[in-house]
Amino acid sequence: MRKFLLAKNTAASLIAQITTLICGFILPRLFLQHYGSEVNGLVNSISQFLSVIAFLELGVGAVVQSSLYKPLAEKDNQQISKVMVSANKFFQRLARILLVYVISLMIIYPFIANQNFGFIYTATLIAAISISSFAQYYFGIVNSLLLNADQRGYIQYNAQTVTIILNTIVCAIMISMDGTIQIVKLVTSLIYIARPIILQIYVNNHYTINWKIKYTQEPIKQKWNGVAQHVASVVLDGTDTIVLTVFSTLSNVSIYSVYFLVVKGVKTLFLSVTNGIQALIGELWAKQELDQLKSFFGWIEWLIHTGTTYVFSCTAALIVPFIQVYTLGIRDANYIQPTFAILLTLANAMHCLRLPYNIMILAAGHYKQTQRNYIVAAILNIVASVLTVKIWGLIGVAIGTLVAMTYQTIWLAIYDSRHFINWPLKKVIKQFLVDIISSFLIISFGSHIVLKDITYFNWFFMAIKVAIVALFVAFCLNSLFYRSKMLRLMLKFRK
Description:
Elements: H1 2-35, H2 37-54, H3 56-74, H4 77-112, H5 119-138, H6 142-149, H7 154-176, H8 181-192, H9 194-206, H10 223-247, H11 250-272, H12 277-286, H13 290-326, H14 338-353, H15 355-364, H16 367-392, H17 394-419, H18 425-446, H19 456-481, H20 483-494
Helix pairs in contact: 1-2, 1-7, 1-11, 2-4, 2-5, 2-10, 2-11, 3-4, 3-6, 3-10, 3-12, 4-5, 5-8, 7-8, 7-9, 10-11, 10-16, 10-17, 11-13, 11-14, 12-15, 13-14, 13-15, 13-18, 13-19, 14-17, 15-17, 16-17, 18-19, 19-20
């Protein structure tokens, strides 16, 4: 049953992320063509400012999920109800905070951002973009957390796929009809309201939740530790766009957003394969099946490291040629930034490398013990980005993110090896050394494969060549350093 649900969640997540990736490339290109780089930069800047409060969900959301693993495993409906009621109260308060934040942002943002648009233009755009975030919290994001914790995330992934496709079609039609950016984003927000409504209907029909239940003791432990940890995580992930908005130009924000669109798409697609893992690890930890947990974690760690190295090394070699094709004909900003591209790709690769260690911490509920790491990483990112953005621009903010992500990933790996998995630190060091060697070889060989003509067709064949070279490098190195795992993996494929 565990394997079936994991496979089902993985498949649904993968379909949702592929859909997100494809549609995610269509709309920004239309925005660039129809509205220009500055408007595209403005939209991405506002979205990033709004995500600062939206991502607070990740803090309490992760704590809520870890609080649900045990009662779901024990089918304790009373405790499940208590957790859901407590979480719902929190998110209702968060929705009210979001409303105040949005109003404040509408007033303040036009004055702090380096932008050439009027107050009314910018304020109405903020209002339009914010509606989907507000609705998400107000209509009960707790349902999404319940489904994830119960290994039924495929329900929300399917809902996500439908809404994304619908949104892309409607937006494309409205842009072709010369609709204003405010109207386009308003329609987007209204379409995305459908998703929480669908989840609410499903939960009401499949779970017995007593929304009137009373409790004397807080059922969600370490709630505020989770918030503190993930506020720092939000700062770590979202600093770049904000720093560029305040200290640079909206054109640079647009350049950043196009590159980040590619990197985020690759990252999200890669991470979609791992979406069901946290719930499974959470269940194993809740039941204290430690031998099975250790064995499973060992495989997950190796697979994520190997997959991350392969995927992001290919991305580093292919991203600039892709941007050349994607921005062909767009001349109001210089989108060819090779050094920035490499640094941004490596920074996001580090974000993926931390995944197995972060999943273990979230599943075990070690928020208080690890929150200092997130705070330090966030401070590193802010300080490094602010100090370097005036000197190196886009490269400066990428350096800040890379430094912070590297520190955090190494710290989390050491923490897990000492507190959960209990294996020697040299195993972790070995894994990172293999990653470095593999990345260096793939990027070095890949850089010698050149895009001759700037077309999607030629880029596609270039990508195939890079992928084959990278696969050969990854196979050779893992056969050398992880022979037993490679043999077991090939046996599984044969079966």
